[in-house]
């Protein structure tokens, strides 16, 4: 079951973030997109998706799709199919759905999908089978070889392409789901429309151009390091697409990151060496955000001292910007852009519970 966006180990993470790290939700966007090519099979000409567990033949245009974990349900719905089943993900409201997804499918299809009951270990195979899917998509997942084999006995299954919990960029993920659904052209249209929205928002705010930023996390009580995200993280990428420029300290961040991590930590004693006009972050609560900006060291750091920061402790907002899709970006970007503009004028934002 998917969890919250990962928080750096170095930041002595809260319980919520620790769960996220266990899931290894890599938002790096560094994986290549899947190549989907025409193929012939017993069921006739179809589409083949190559992925980490092999390849999947999708012999005909799917109609009953189970969309597992983050992001995939948004893309499936936007491409013209209301999923028959989805999992409850982090950022969902009381209804069990993320707000932008629920609004879209209710308006477009008049109903919401069935929520697949949580299973302690791995996918809920029995519940998925009962939905009689003709395609199972789990690109943003940790589906193992054995789980993939069991799911494939139910229906053609596309798990992650490159590595567990690595969805690649939102554009590439949209293309992969589009190919699996036989909707390549519509996928490209959605990408184009979304990129145009981002470009238009950037054009409306020329003051963003050249302003430097750091995307990170709030401090836990007693924390001695500030968690920060690297240049290939989804949050960093979308902020750059709006006209901002990553901090000159990004090379330093990259040099301290471990393995394939998409985050690292900056010791508070070195924080003043990190140049930034703006700080954006997510946290577990508004109280945690307040604790961060009131920390005696952090409070004197350039963007915090200038009241130039945006901190989201609202689960839906943090989820939407952390795992962007063609639906979630429409939901979160207008507010995000307004908050960024206000922060540059010295009016900060801390939202959430």
Automatic annotation (TrEMBL):
Q: Which Pfam families match?
A: Peripla_BP_2
Q: Which residues form the signal peptide?
A: 1-36
Domain named Fe/B12 periplasmic-binding: residues: 64-344
Keywords carried by this UniProt record? Signal, Transport
- Family designation: Belongs to the bacterial solute-binding protein 8 family.
Claim: Aminoacyl-tRNA synthetase is one of the keywords in the record: no
Does the entry feature the keyword Transport, yes or no?
A: yes
SUPFAM superfamilies membership: Helical backbone' metal receptor
Superkingdom of origin organism: Bacteria
Protein name as it appears in the record:
Fe3+-hydroxamate ABC transporter substrate-binding protein
**Location in the cell:** Cell envelope
GO cellular-component term (any): outer membrane-bounded periplasmic space
**GO biological process, any:** iron coordination entity transport
Organism the protein comes from: Microterricola viridarii
């Amino acid at each position: 079951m998917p969890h919250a966006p990962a928080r750096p180990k170095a930041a002595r993470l809260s319980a919520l973030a620790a769960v996220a790290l266990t899931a290894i939700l890599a938002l790096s966007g560094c994986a290549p997109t899947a190549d989907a090519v025409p193929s012939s099979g017993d069921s006739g000409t179809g589409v083949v998706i190559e992925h980490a567990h092999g390849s999947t033949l999708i012999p005909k245009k799917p109609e009953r799709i189970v969309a597992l974990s983050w992001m995939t349900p948004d893309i499936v719905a936007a491409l013209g199919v209301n999923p028959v089943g989805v999992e409850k993900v982090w950022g969902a409201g009381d209804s069990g759905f993320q707000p932008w997804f629920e609004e879209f499918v209710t308006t477009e299809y008049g109903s919401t999908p069935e929520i697949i009951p949580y299973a302690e270990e791995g996918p809920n195979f029995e519940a998925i089978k009962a939905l009689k899917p003709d395609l199972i998509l789990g690109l943003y997942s940790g589906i193992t070889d054995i789980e993939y084999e069991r799911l494939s006995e139910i229906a053609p299954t596309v798990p992650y392409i490159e590595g567990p919990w690595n969805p690649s960029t939102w554009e590439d993920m949209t293309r992969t789901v589009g190919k699996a659904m036989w909707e390549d052209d519509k996928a490209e249209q959605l990408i184009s429309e979304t990129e145009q929205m981002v470009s238009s928002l950037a054009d409306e705010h020329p003051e963003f151009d050249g302003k430097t930023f750091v995307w990170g996390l709030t401090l836990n009580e007693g924390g001695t390091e500030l968690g920060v995200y690297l240049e290939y993280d989804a949050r960093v990428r979308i902020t750059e697409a709006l006209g901002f420029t990553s901090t000159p300290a990004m090379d330093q961040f990259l040099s301290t990151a471990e393995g394939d991590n998409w985050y690292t930590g900056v010791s508070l004693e070195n924080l003043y060496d990190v140049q930034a006009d703006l700080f954006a972050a997510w946290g577990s609560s508004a109280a945690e955000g307040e604790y961060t900006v009131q920390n005696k060291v952090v409070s004197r750091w350039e963007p915090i001292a200038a009241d130039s920061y945006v901190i989201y402790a609202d689960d839906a907002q943090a989820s939407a910007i952390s795992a962007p899709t063609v639906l979630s970006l429409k939901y979160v970007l207008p507010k995000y852009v307004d908050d960024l503009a206000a922060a540059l004028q010295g009016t900060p934002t801390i939202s959430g519970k």
